[in-house]
Amino acid sequence: MVILNFDRAVILAKGIQFLSLVDPMMVEALVLREAIVWCLANGFTGMRFEDDAQVIIEKIHRKDVRDNRVEAILEEIVNSLASNMGFTVRFVGRRNNMVAHLVARQALSLFSSPCRSFDFQI
Question: What is the per-residue pLDDT across 21-72, written as a single tens digit (0 to 9) for each?
């Protein structure tokens, strides 16, 4: 998860390694949920979440949480977005999301041993 300010400067990166998950859809849903939970816990009232997982974003927009793999996570995301009107989510293709990918990759490379979660501020 990478948080950018309105000038698109990175203000926080948070990384999580899911050591036992191999399903990309599950990982994308968990990361989006983690980003929403983190923003709520840190007092954000307005946030645009961007994700390159088009299937996940389409399901959220349609409020279609029916998917055995990620149903509970999607339901939590949809409910969080509905109760926090300043939060929106949109699909951004990987080409347009390179800053987030580069920062996330760099953040993960900072740790040589497997870790579950870390934060760092830039």
Answer: 678 888 889 989 988 998 899 898 888 888 888 899 999 999 988 877 888 9
CA distance 47 to 18: 25
Cα separation, 63 vs 67, in Å, equals 11
What angle separates helix 54-62 from helix 24-41, to the nearest 10 degrees? Answer: 60
Q: What is the mean pLDDT of residues 100-112?
A: 62
Using alpha carbons, select from 37, 19, 13 the residue that is nearest to residue 115: 19
Query: What is 2-120's CATH number, 3.40.50.2300, 3.30.420.10, 3.90.1150.10, 3.40.109.10?
Result: 3.30.420.10
Contact 49, 4 (CB under 8 A): no
Radius of gyration of the chain (CA): 14
From 15, 32, 27, select the one nearest 107 (Cα to Cα).
15
For residues 48 and 90, the answer to whether their CB atoms sit within 8 Å is: yes
User: 16's torsion region: left (phi>0), alpha (psi -120 to 50) or beta?
Assistant: beta
